[in-house]
Amino acid sequence: MAKASSSRQAITANRLRDGAVVYLAVDGNWSENLAQAATAPDGDALKKLFDRAAQSARQNLIVDPVAIAVDDVDQTAPVSFREKIRLRGPSVRPDLARI
Amino acid sequence: MPALDHTGARVTSWHVAADGEPINPSTPTLVSLAHLIGMNKAVAGVLLESDADLDQAGARLANLTIAGVKFTTFKDGRPFSIARLLRTRHGFTGDLRAYGPFIPDQGAFLVRCGFSSFEVVDGFDEAALRKNIAHFSYNYQHPLSVTASIVALRQANAARP
Amino acid sequence: MYAYDTYDQTFVDQRAAEFRTQVARRLSGELTEEQFRPLRLLNGLYLQLHAYMLRVAIPYGTLSSRQLQALADIADKYDRGYGHFTTRQNIQFNWIKLEEAPDILADLAVVEMHAIQTSGNVIRNVTADHFAGVILGEADDPRITCEIIRQWSTLHPEFSFLPRKFKIAVTGSLVDRAAIRFHDIGIRIRKAADASLVHDIYIGGGMGRTPFVAPLVKANLSKAGLLSYLEAVLRVYNRYGRRDNIYKARIKILVDALGVDEFARQVEAEWMHTKLEGADLPEAEEQRIRAFFAGPAYETGLPATPIETPDLRETGFADWCKTSVFPHRVPGYAVVTISLKPIGGIPGDATSQQMRAIADLAEAYSRHEIRVTHEQNLVLPYVRQIDLPVLWRKLACEKLATANVGLVSDIIACPGLDYCSLANARSIPIAQRISERFAELQQQHDIGPLKIKISGCINACGHHHAGHIGILGVDRKGEEFYQIMLGGTGDETAAIGELVGPGFSSNTVVDAVETIVKTFLDLRQPGEVFLNAVRRLGLAPFKERLYARS
Predict the structure, then answer these.
(1) Distance (Å, rounded) from C-alpha C381 to C-alpha C369?
(2) What is the per-residue pLDDT across B11-59, written as a single tens digit (0 to 9) for each?
(3) How many domains does chain A have?
(4) C284 vs B158: CB contact, 8 Å cut-off?
């Protein structure tokens, strides 16, 4: 299996009030949909996204924001296995899958 | 920096003396444990680090009128043990004050281990501290504070005719 | 079982109310996440991969039917219709909203339950032999000691900010079903020569990154001195346990660093004081708590097991009796273990419908009482033997009669990377695939007792060090990999499993387990069980077969 190549990252977090997995969207809101996520290559643009996420954390909207790598070809796909599970839900409960 | 007593009311901060600093006997002052051990004169109080070896100070702790114990972080649970030891084993009966970054939600634990006052930073949530101290009507453990433990209350109820 | 008095009830109600204000302070921004995290953890609320997770305490694994009903209601009302029974005899709900957590604690308080100290660096929920009070040859019901420790440790003012979490387990039997020597403190209650009850105290066991089997630190501790002794142990640990490195902060590291003798000496010196300071329970209070565990009024003259009924034997009843039914200390009764390990299922998960069914069955056939085992199964402790066939049929209707307790498909697995934010690899799918590989029940019975335990990270919630076959999931360059250990056990012959060699990929790990089992079947002596064969043979023949180059 060829390794996914990734040069862009998105910001993910859990929403404070219900813990749901969310992504920082292009419009600055937090979306449960990775397809709406803002992505940026490592560097100033990513730092800007992260600053916005940190602000959301200070505003008590989200908790524990982190940058995650997304696939270059399919930007709705995270690279790491852990993030794939966060995106989709527990692999052992396909009936509860988010997507 | 303000200080609060065990009811959460404002009280005077104590002076913390640097080692070797001359002590003004009319000002409530805490010195370090090392300083206390090295001193010949009577002194009001000591400020203990959370890893303090109390046995070093011997009987001197019983003669102090004030003392402080310092948290390194709020997760540092050692001051709770130090406080209980000061109260139960070293004969300290004076005003025992918590120092450092403890949090309001530790108020009842602090009081129940023998702390009687708190040195806090500006912006510390004093209302939350007061609430925390007064929150529980009963506790299971044998207390250092005035309220009886649940065990003692059960014993008293059973003894009632 | 223990019933709250007004003090216990007021306490738990006030605890729930306190958490409601703490959650409100967090949601309003008065508390930062950093300030709030320890507060929510002290109420069992974690933030996991997909949502908050609430771990509800089931003290020493004992539940009433009413409490299990309430847990089923919580699963439906606040979660997604199921819960997960854990290796600490607790239950976890996986899809909790922070804003609803205070309501759950309030609902729990109504049925005398809570989530106090199911997380955080505190004395955690005390666990016990799940057959407490009903098994033959027990010196004392360990739940009496557990309840005493539960009350003493609940919001203990001195020991709520320990260097690290602290786990205590208690057994009253020589046969160890509570894995006491893998705990920070393991307590075995024995009858002394003069018939008085004494405690042997093992300290410094544990799994995780540095596994230890706990050494005996104090033998023959009198019942009356238990709490003052524990207070001395905890004080020595609280003052001198390491706080600079979380991987070295458990008491096992302190015991190991000081040496058992020096550690024991320091505790002894502390105990000389604490026993004079009023920590010990008055005899009358011990008697009050003891009375709750007297057990039900048993019927006498009941007929013995109907296992010889031929028509039932054909349909699997006999197999189920062989694995799920255990002798009761009272003639005419049986102890029934309900497997939460259906073939291909998620170990320890139960749906709300199953919880209600089990609550009803306990109501009808087990004096309203259920136990949770650390092996993630449930137990009905007071079943009349004459009721076994009907109970079995009713369990089968809910897919709760799998005859695999203690066998190769009765696997312990932590939630792993499917749910847990600490995990490096998934545990549940491995358990499911192993269970499917050995689905054929006759084959499982032929293999005999075999405990497989799987963890998704080194924290070892899945007890892999204590598995006859232990499996540890690791992350290797972004791929799930699994290390296999052999020869571990949590019973009275406690031992840490030994790493068999290089790890296996997710694709090959189930084959590896099968190879190990086949090697055992080829080499075993008549009647020999897996663990004994590993002890006799060592790892060599297993390694040879596992790593043979074709």
Answers:
(1) 7
(2) 999 999 998 888 888 899 999 999 988 877 778 899 999 999 999 887 8
(3) 1
(4) yes
